[in-house]
Amino acid sequence: MRSPEGSPAADLKAGRLSRDGVVIHAFEHEGALVSENTRSLAALSLAGMRPTNVRMMDDVPSVVRGRLTEDPIVGGPLPSRVVAVTPSMRDLRVGDIISIPDGP
Amino acid sequence: VASRVIEGQGLRTTYAFAPLVHVTTRRDGPTSVRLEFSSSSVTGPGQAFRVTILTFDGVVAYSWNDFEFHRLPSNPDNSGFELLEILDSPIVSEIVSTGRYIGDPLKHYRITFDDHGTYDIVSGRLMVDHTMSTSDAYP
Asked: Which of chain B's residues have a Cβ under 8 Å away from the Cβ of A89?
C-alpha cells in the first residue's frame, strides 16, 4: 500500500482509508499463509485491524518466494509473524516491532 | 537454467530500497546507465556504508518495472535481489538478429530491488566499482 501522505495506519485509524480497501495479496508456503505486500499488512496491524480483503495469488513470482530465503532482522525464520521497523533498508536499528495477528 | 548470478562483493540489493540512476548519452556515441546503491548496513547515525556502482556501457536497451505489478520484459522466472545475467534473452537475440549491432557481445543484466522494482539492461560492457558514503541521498 503506497500512501503519498505517508501514514496509511493513521489514515485507517481515522477512517480516511477503508480496511476493505486494503487488499492483502497472499500465497501459501509450506502450509503457512504468507502476505506478498507485508507493508499493507503491517499498516493494518498498526491500526489494530485485521485484513478483510485477502486475495490469493495464482502465480507467485519467483522473486517474491525468494524473499523467504533472506536473513530476517528479527523474528526467526521466514515467514514470520513480526515485522521490524527500521529507519531504512541499510540502517538496521529496530525502532519498532509490529506483530501480525493470526488469520484474517 | 536461463540465468546466472553474477558473483562479487556488494551485488545483492538487501540494503537498498532503490538505486540512484544516471543515464548518460553522447551525440553519436554510446548510452551509459549507472546504478548506485547502498550495499552494506549501518547500526548507527553517521556511519559510512558501502556503495556499489554498476556502470553499463554501450547500452542498447534498458527498462524499469515497478515491483508492485511484477511485469518483466522477458524471462519472468529469472529474478532475484541480486545481479543476474539472463542467458537466453530474447531481447539480445532480437537485437543481434537485425545484423545492425556492432560492438562487444551483448549481455542482458537484471537486478531487482524489493518493493521498488526491476532494472533490465542490455549492454556490451559492465563495470563494478565500490565507494564508501554517509550520504542520505541513497534511498
From this structure: 14-17, 38, 114
**A26: how many CB neighbours lie within 10 A of its CB?**
20
| Residue carrying the nine cell digits 541499510 | A90
List CB contacts of B29: < 8 A, sequence separation 6 or more.
none
> Closest chain A residue to B15 measured between Cα atoms?
A90
Q: Does the beta-carbon distance from A66 to B43 stay under 8 Å?
A: no
Cα B107 from Cα B32, distance rounded (Å): 14
User: Of residues B108 and A15, which shows the higher confidence score?
Assistant: B108
Q: Which residues of B touch A62 (CB under 8 A)?
A: 76-80
d(CA B55, CA B60): 14
Question: What is the Cα–Cα distance from A104 to A27, expressed in whole angstroms?
Answer: 13
Share of residues in chain B with pLDDT > 70 (%): 99
pLDDT one-digit tens code per residue, A83-93: 888 888 899 88
The Cα-based distances of B125 to B65, B88, B106 in angstroms read 22, 18, 8
Cis omega (within 30 of 0) on the bond before B19?
Answer: no
Q: Is the pTM of this model over 0.95?
A: no
- State the smallest CA–CA distance between residue A26 and chain B in angstroms: 13
Inter-chain contact B115–A39, Cβ cutoff 8 Å?
Answer: yes
Q: Which amino acid is at A27?
A: F
pLDDT in tens, A32-45: 889 998 888 888 98
